[in-house]
Structure prediction request, 282 residues.
Amino acid sequence: MGDKLPITAVIISRNEESGIRATLERLRDFDQVIVVDSRSTDRTVEIAQECGATVVPFDWDGRYPKKKQWGMTHAGARHDWILLLDADELVTPELAQEIRARLPELARREYGAYDIRLRYKFAGRFLDHGHTVVKRSLVDRRVTRFVELEELGWDYEVEGHVQPQSDLPIGRMAARIEHDDRDPVESWFTRHNKYSGWEARLMADRELFREVAHRRTSQGRVWAKVPFKPLVFFLYSYVARAGFLDGRAGFDYAVALSMYYWQIGVKARENVRLAHKEAVSA
Prediction:
């Protein structure tokens, strides 16, 4: 193993030829790299193999486990600590150094998982201010797992906006992961249109909504309770967190996420209206 980090990096992919090489090249310090691939039809698999990664095909059967959990438990990881990455997420040198420095802490199992902030790219520019997305990306698979999302109405092969849960406390890394999204902005809106529909359906079931909120990061749990989310979020991201320092991209990102929360509210109210109409006509 030499001086390699005793961690298995698991990357989920599907037709990611444009960016997966950059992701894999940042993982040379990791002892094992696995790409869990959903039958890509481009050069994703070829590129991953050229970079020395093990490629494991994934076919979702519509049941638990979904893709990330399956990668943790069934893709052949030889280490208990797993770094979960999307194919457009890059480990920064600072994060690799921090993980190395914390190896004794990982060995002591003081925490069951670590939250890591993303340095997010939106509209072609990395954002250094404003709202920061946090993901629970470094996990000990012995004590950390994703919830069975079929019960939560998310009918897609990859886990959605729900974080894995751990039997041990959750730590936090200071360094970041770079989210180098190369897709057009239109794809961001397409994804979040789907996410907002799911969030709106959750709001119709208070018990289920609380269950999902419990499985988010602490930041996500706070936002679940905030009233007037579109306005509050814009002021928080663009003003309080100095998103204006990122120029037009910072403004556009703050507006886009504010509108995402607005979408959730509109769809949730419509769901209530339609349910009431159906109950009256029944």
In short: Residues 5-278 form a domain with the Spore Coat Polysaccharide Biosynthesis Protein SpsA; Chain A fold (CATH 3.90.550). The radius of gyration is 19 Å. The mean pLDDT is 90.
